Amino acid sequence: MASCPLLVIYNPVCGDSTAEAFFNEHVFPRLEEAHLQVVQKNATGAAGHAGTIVSEFIEKYEGDVTVILGSGDGTLHEIINALSLESPKGVREKVASSSVRLVLVPCGTANALYCSLFKPDSMHEGPAYKLKSLEAFIRDSNVVPLTLAITTISSPQSTQQSCHKVAISAVVTSTALHASILHDSESLRKEMPGIERFKVAAWNNITRWYSSQVKLLPTPSTQVVEIYDPDQKTFVTHDDNHGIVDVIGPFAYFLSTVNVDRLEPAFRITPLVSEFVPAEISLDIVMVRPHRDPTFVTDTTEARQVFAEKATAVLTAAYQDGNHINLKYTDDGKITTEGTGPTVVEYIRCGGWEWIPDDIDEKAQLLCSDGTIFSIEKGGKAVCWEIRDGAFEDMDSGVVRINNGSDVFVVRACYNDDGADLLAVAGEHSVEVFRVTPPISERIASFHLGRRVTALAWSPRSISPSSSDDWVIEITAAASDFSLHLLTKSSTSSENMFAFGGGLSGHHGKVNDMCFCGGRDQDNARYVATVADDKMLMVWDLHPSLDISSGIPSPERSMGTNASSSPRPRPQPTAYVITFPHPLVTVNSHQFSSKEFLVSDCRGSIFLTDWRSDPEQSEQGSWKQSSVIELVEPHALSKSLMGVSSQWTGFAAWRQDNIDIVGATYGSRFSIWDLSKPQGGKPSQTGISFPDGGHQFRWCPTNPDYFAIASQSPTKGAVVHIHDMNYVHAQPHVINIAPRPHRVRDFDFMARRGNPALAVAYGVEVVIFPIGVE
Ligand SMILES: Nc1ncnc2c1ncn2[C@@H]1O[C@H](COP(=O)(O)OP(=O)(O)OP(=O)(O)O)[C@@H](O)[C@H]1O
């Protein structure tokens, strides 16, 4: 490590402005003594300069570099943000991965990260204490990897050019009192260069409460939010243990940290970071909500004045070796460390949080990331979550990760020209819709179905907020109880859910796939096809001219504003049913045909079905009357002739630029049919992708020669193979997404132009990344 190029930077105005003197007196002589050659040394000249210095320095070197940094946490924050948010240039552009190692010399005011790594013995440590990191570097000791917290601050979804800011913290991300303190204390820096200015600013803000809607996001690996129980002296699963935890304000205090147990040498606000070292990458949150006080009645100026004393008690206890986490209320609202009353502080360990400040509460709109203050626009929000190893590379290469909080079962990208950045993600209870604009994603709709989702389809009506002010989200979803749902949200209306297909009239087996009708006329948003384990293809008319709802549960409107404004309930969709010989797995439509669906079954047969062929004759008909073509996967046929039972299922996909090309997987094989050259239903090309069984097959909508196959076998891990139609027998491009025991639950291509990108669901995560195939 000592042989890496060495850059020295110090901030001459941080802390009490003694960094330069300290470096001249102690740091440079010690480096000389250790025979370590400094390649470049700089004093920062302005705010933001440190980031530029380090970015420009690393552009000149391919491998690891070391930066000796004399500053506080703010300058470190600038460097981390510059390195993670700017694209690599110079020789770095072609370098796969290398690290920037930091040697900290604490010259700032609070030096939270340094004091957490090198715990001070007293408040007045001498030069030897400040040189501990430098000495460790000279000895070539271990390097501590940093966990980082990324916060996206987004403007309201309704704004035409909704914008995002991204802040990366290595220490603290906060709102409420802590953000107000940091906001106000900067103006006090000149007269109070030490930590006293934080106390003055705290006192000036101590009676404030902050109104916001908050969600706590689970840690990806454990999938739960944990809360500290001072009686058991351990973390326990939060009472509201269904993944995401909703928290109601107002808040007196809300702060999260990574890497640090303290924000000043003695202010141990998140002491459990060092006492219960997190097993997984996570955030520690400390929050104080006044309404937990048993004497709280209502939010008045007097109530806030009275509570100020209690907030002060929390801050004071944090200075007493982090004892605030043991404080409880007595029945009459006094603060004690005894008894069984509610805790004054809620100490949370989780994967992230979302903060949606109340429009009318200006102070609630402040957000602090390592001392840098941001303002959340009215109607906007901030989402903060931890990021893991390799996340810097992710950000540089346009990778986006979505943590759903619970297992993801279905991902479906919107293929409409005006919706190419939209992605629907469905899990245990809900369908979430994201606008994906690397390196970030923004959730723009959330539909809580309360049941596991088994299939999704995007309506051709959907338009992204990126494309129009009059945007619309329209999706159909199937749930594990075989119910179907039309989910809508638009620029003028909130989430609306309309249930149909329940009861006797609908499916009575798991709905495995669905798609809207093809073609380019208006009907394509009117009809939606569903296929299920019950061997039925059902084509639903979402806008029937007649309401024939007998025997069908009445329409359900469980959310949204449209429910009350609609004069009459919407008529129940009617279904046209075609029965097949075996359980059905996939259904596809095509942009050039409004009358056909491509249906695959679990035995590897594929049917091209003209569902409008002769409705009189074949109503409630069978596949024989309506199927135009039956394609047979020879491998599947031989298996079934030999009576070999298999858990393999057939999965078919229709290439959208060419109506004659169909691709499918069955078992280890994939097959491609060219319908313009019929060969008795046999494929024109076959190959092997995963010897122990491929599962899903999808064509790339933006580069139609590419198709991707994923295996669901857990023996491989989460892997996707990319094939090229022009070289079907060549080895596929293998993309390893996650090791065993992960497996790909579902995947789809994004429809945005440029480098093709995949969205892959595994576990609780969806990762969206450019496939980078030459
Ligand atoms: N030459 C300069 N002139 C003015 N400001 C500068 C200069 N160099 C750096 N800065 C700014 O100084 C600010 C304070 O630096 P830093 O956060 O490192 O010290 P601090 O605030 O005293 O310590 P801490 O963050 O540990 O409390 C940073 O936000 C940085 O942008």
Through-space gap between termini: 35 Å
Structural class: alpha+beta
Strand share of the residues?
Answer: 25-35%
How would you name the CATH homologous superfamily of the largest domain?
Answer: YVTN repeat-like/Quinoprotein amine dehydrogenase
The gross shape turns out to be globular
Domains (count): 3
Helix content: 10-25%
Provide a count of the helices.
Answer: 15
CATH class bucket of the largest domain: Mainly Beta
Describe what this molecule looks like in 3D.
- The structure is a single chain.
- By secondary structure, the chain is an alpha+beta fold.
- Helices cover 16% and strands 35% of the residues.
- The strands form eleven sheets. It has an eight-stranded antiparallel β-sheet with strand order 10-9-16-13-12-7-18-19, with helices on one face. A six-stranded antiparallel β-sheet has the order 6-5-20-17-8-11.
- β18 and β19 form a beta hairpin.
- Bound molecules: adenosine-5'-triphosphate (ATP).
Structure characteristics:
Tumour Suppressor Smad4, Rossmann fold, single chain, Methylamine Dehydrogenase, Chain H, Diacylglycerol_kinase_cat_dom, globular, 3 domains, 8-stranded antiparallel beta sheet, alpha+beta, binds adenosine-5'-triphosphate, 774 residues, 6-stranded antiparallel beta sheet
